[in-house]
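ESCALATION

Customer reports they have been waiting on this structure for their group meeting. Please prioritize. Original submission:
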Amino acid sequence: MSVIEVAESGVGVYGTAGDSSIVMYDSGRTSHKGLILALHGRSLTSLTWGPITSGTAYEHVRALVRAGYVVISGDAAGTTAWSSPAAMTAVNNMKNYGLTRFGGTKYACMGFSMGGLTALNVQKRDSACLGSMMWSPCTDLSWAYGPAGYTPAYGGGVSPLQATYQAEINTAFSCNTSTYATATNGYRIYDEYSTWSSLGPVKIIHADDDATVPIAQIKAFVNGVNAPQVSLHELASGGHGPWTGTDPSETASFFNSLGF
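Update from on-call: job pushed to the front of the queue and completed.
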């Protein structure tokens, strides 16, 4: 039977007002392998993972649909939610919608850039999340925020868009420079090494010429966790979002290994 790729789009479908979403699956199947939530980068939307991006991110989604998965891409509380509590609630709503509609009790995440940070925060909070695969993720919220006096231990300084990111994060977490640390406690990810030693697999695809999120940040996270389930596939080039640097079959293989 040929694969029938369906992409249903809508607003407020999974229960978060204003969030757009795309539900992608093979309608020729009577059952599916599992649910995967696809999370977008900063200033982007659920469209990042949809058919409109054919040839890039969607090729990885297509591989998953053809392998029998349901992929739901949602705005997750907006374009600059920065993995905030509102983003966590939105992803939980997305999960509940997907599991209720398609069945199952477990799910996994895939993310790009800020969406990688969201995926990591989701995984550490929800035991139903089996694992995450991500491209060019931000793994250090403090790097993005750049609070006064903060210098990443892995070098490279704070984000070049510090002022912009800081304003967005203040809004997302309802904080300011004096309350940032309290408001974002538990959301930073980067230095929470022990957390990841007991969680499911995390696979990161990152290019060494990424000028948006330095690969030094990712290497510091992976090396700090120092556990086989957290791995880095480093690419020699590809910039930020190196979709064409990995074969979509690698994506399908990763999710197949999670044991839905």
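Sent to customer with the following note: The mean pLDDT is 93.
Escalation resolved.
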